[in-house]
Amino acid sequence: MDHDHHHAATDLPEGAETAKDPVCGMTVAIKPDGRQAEFQGETYHFCSDKCLAKFEADPWFYASGRAEGQKKAVPANVQYTCPMHPEIVRDAPGSCPICGMALEPMLPSDEPSEELADFTRRMWISAAAAVPLIILTMGEMVGLPVRDWIGHRTASYLEFVLATPIILWAALPFFLR
Fold first, then answer.
1. In contact, 19 and 36? CB cutoff 8 Å
2. Rounded to an integer, what is the distance from CA 81 to the centroid of its chain?
3. What is the model's pLDDT at position 15?
4. What is the pLDDT of residues 46-58, one digit of tens each?
5. Where is the TRASH domain (predicted)?
6. Dist. CA 99–CA 102, nearest whole Å
C-alpha cells in the first residue's frame, strides 16, 4: 500500500472526535484545520495528503464504500499485517493497534512482486549506463584518458546522455515518494 503516515492512533487526544479515513480505513482525529474534503454534502477526513489526493481523484469510488468491498479473495489460513508496521501480525482482519490502518492479508507468492521486478529492471539498465559513465568520468585516474581521445565537449554531452536516464527514469519512484 502506498501511504506516508507520520502519526499513530495513540497520538489521538483522549476524548477526541474521530472519523474513519475512507481510503485506508485509518482512524483520524477530526480537526478544523485537518485534511478533509466535502462530497455530496458530507465531510470526509483523511490521515495523509496521499489519501486525500486519492479520494479527490475518485470520490464516488471511496464514498460509496466500494473501496472496502473490493478485497481480494483470501485463503483460509492467512495472516494479516499492517502496511505501515510489518511487525504487527494477526490471524484475523482488523485494525493496526499502532496506527489504526486496516490490516492486509499476507499472501504467499512464488512470483516476485511487481515492484521488485520493476526496481530490478531499473537497476540493471542504470548499471549498464553507469559503467561507461564511470569510465568516462574517472578514466583519467586509472590511466584511461577517454576525454582526451574523444574531446571534452563530446565527453560532456555523453555524460549528460548517460546520466539523465539514471537520474530521471531509474530514480523516478524515489522522487514520487
1. no
2. 17
3. 62
4. 888 888 888 888 8
5. 21-59
6. 9
Q: Helix (H, G, I), strand (E, B), or coil: what is residue 107?
A: coil
Distance (Å, whole) CA 17 – CA 173: 36
Residue of 69, 91, 89 whose CA lies nearest to 25: 69
Neighbours of 36 (CB within 10 A): 16
Residue 50: in which H helix or E strand, if any? helix 49-57
Span 20-29, pLDDT tens digits: 888 877 788 8
Q: Where are the domains of the chain?
A: 9-106, 114-176
Between CA 163 and CA 143 the distance in angstroms is 22
Burial class (CB in 10 A: 0-12, 13-18, 19+), 106: middle
Reduced 3-state DSSP string for 71-83: CCCCCCCCEEECC
